[in-house]
Structure formats: structure tokens, C-alpha cells
Amino acid sequence: MRILITGGAGFIGSYLSEAYIERGEEVWAIDDLSTGSLDNIAPLLQHPRFHFVNDTILNREVLLELTGTCDVIVHLAAAVGVRLIIEEPLKSIHTNVVGTELVLEMANKFRKKTFIASTSEVYGRNSKVPLNEDDQRIYGSTVLARWSYAATKAMDEFLALAYYRTKQLPVIITRFFNTVGPRQTGRYGMVIPRFVGQALRNDPITVFGDGSQTRTFTYVGDVVKGIIALIDEPQAVGEIFNIGGEEEITIDNLASRVKAVTGSSSRIEHIPYSEAYQEGFEDMERRVPDITKIRRLVAYRNTCDVDAILAKVVEFERTRYLSSATMSWGNTTLRITWARSTGESMSISQGASSAAAHGKAKSRRCSWSSATFQAAGSSTSAAETGSSCGRWILSGGNGSALNVRRRP
Description:
Elements: E1 2-6, H1 11-22, E2 26-31, H2 38-41, E3 50-54, H3 60-69, E4 72-75, H4 82-87, H5 89-110, E5 113-119, H6 146-167, E6 171-177, E7 179-180, H7 191-200, E8 205-208, E9 214-215, E10 218-219, H8 220-232, E11 240-244, E12 249-250, H9 251-262, E13 268-271, H10 273-276, H11 292-298, H12 306-320, E14 322-329, E15 332-339, E16 345-350, E17 353-358, E18 363-364, E19 367-368, E20 371-375, E21 387-389, E22 392-396, E23 401-406
Parallel strand pairs: 1-2, 1-4, 2-3, 4-5, 5-6, 6-11, 7-10, 8-13
Antiparallel strand pairs: 9-12, 14-15, 15-16, 16-17, 17-20, 18-19, 20-23, 21-22, 22-23
């Protein structure tokens, strides 16, 4: 079977690509890398049954060719994350609505089964526990951009169901509840990688609001199994399913658990929503899914509780983005800590003083290109070059410049 995965270099898409390759299928992944990353699919790039297309789903000609080539479409590409939606509302709305409409149009042209990824956000402010697929949607004012994401994903569902009812296009819709695991970025507001990154750097763990709001979290490996099972099940066509965890936890408790599992000295800080996002921002008090429907149809089950998920994420983050090294030039010793998840930032400590360095490194497939970072407040003149430590090769430049590149 040939699978087309939109958003295939994203967090969920990369895991789904791996699962289908392991099952012996052929995968075409399209991603514009706006929120996805080549690092996510680096192990697959040389695989003969994996094909990556760096393009947008809004490219009609490319999507037409890919849809005609494949047997099943898994539509994961979307603008995601509360922060991204608020900062780029127009782009987000366009991607989520027009992109999905184009995917469905092409799927209908070739009569291809299509899986549509939706979100628990469609329930809006409905704090009923648990939420089942037929529960009402309760939204706030259109003045608040945060509700545009929920509205666009609801429109995606309406579009998919319209194609099913009027064109008999086989579609399946699934609402994800906080899918988490290794590889997820905290860049767009996802809470667990953000908390873990802060804890590993011993920065304040920032909780938005008073921390009493509750969520459930779902391990990405379980979500992928659920997606594949639904696509394989004929009775799933034309239906909507929740996929989510069952352990309800407050965000305050989550922050405490992250601090404990990382052994961090971070303090937990509360930031008003108006400072974290925008004035008048509205959040949900509780969000817990009813997964009876998917459990009955495909025997779905969650295999990881919150503590197990945190252990996986912390282990991955320790090795992935938090690296440190010590370099000496004459009588000067610098300790460098690289934290890739925070916008390619680096902290440099020199003796008892501390200096900060910031720079950017472009991703080319699975490796980092050379980059130069300027250490503010440092007057170190490097006489030694080519020192290496762990995964990083560090070399001194002129003045206080420090060259950093990843070991090939």
C-alpha cells in the first residue's frame, strides 16, 4: 500500500511514516518544514520506500501528482500551537481551511480514502467530563484569535463530512487530545517539551494562568497505532473519533512532576494569560476525552501514563538538545551549554561571570551547518582551534567569536 502523509516531517507525521515503513508500506511525505523538521525524518531519508517532497499542500500540481500516486491520504499538515495561531492568524486560517479543502478535492478526484486529523480544540470551552464525539462546541468571541484554530479545524470536519455525505468519499476524522512524546518542539506552546526544556536548563518553569486547569496527555506511539487501526477498519469511514489519554492532571502538578523527574533546581512561576498570549485570552478548565468509541471499534488502548511519557521525553531531550562542553584557551576556561529547543540559543559561562550568546544554525537534513556565535561581554582571544567534545566540534575565532559545528 502507498501512503501519502501531509505534514510528514512533523511530530506525529514522522512517527507515522516510520510505522508504515516498518509495516512494509511505501510512504510519500510532503511538508513545507514551516513547523516540521528534516531531523524528524533523517533516518528515513535514504530508505528506498520513503519519498520526501519539500513543498506546501497548497501547491495544486504537486498535490495532484502525489494523490494520484498513493492509495491512502493521511492529512496531518496544519498550523498548530496556540502561540503560532495567535501570532500568524491569517496564515494559519488559510493553511487549515484552504489546505484541507484542496486535499479533499484531490482525494475525491481519485477516490482515495482520507484520514483527517482534527483536535480537541473543536470542543472549545465545553468543560464536560468526559467529552464524547457528539458533545456541543462552545466558543468565545471572534475578537480573540485563539478561537480561530478551533473554528478552522471544525470547518475541516464539516468539509470532510460533506464530501462523505454528498460524494461518498471515504473519510475518517480523529480528534487528538494533547499528543506528546520525543521530538515534539515547545516552540509553539506545547507544554511538556516547554516545561522539560526549562527544567533541564534550570530556568523558571512557566505555568500560564493559575495552574489549576487540567489536561490529559497521549503518547505519540499510541496515537500512531490508533491512526493505522482506524484506516484499516472499514467501519471507521464517515465517523469521528477521540484519541486521548485517560489520566487527568493539573498543569501545576505537571510542572512539579517535570521538576522532580529532571532533578531541576527551577522554580515554578505563574504568568497571566494576558502576558503569555493576549489580553482576554480564554482557556479551558478541563479537557478529558471519552475514548469508548475508538476502544470498541479497534481495541485502542493507552500504554503510557503521564510519568512514563515524561520519562521518555526527558531522556530524549537530555541527549538531543542539551549538550555542554568545556574549552580552554590559555588561562581562560569556557563552559558552553547548547539548547537547541529555545531558538538555537547558547549560554556561555566564563569563570565566575556569565555571558550569553545567541545565533542561528540552519538545518540541512540531519546535521547542523557551521555557525558563529558572539559571546557578549567576553574578550577571550582564542589561540586553540579544532577542540571536540561529544557531538560538537568547537573552534575559536577572532576576538570573542566561537565557531560551533556538529560532528559529522
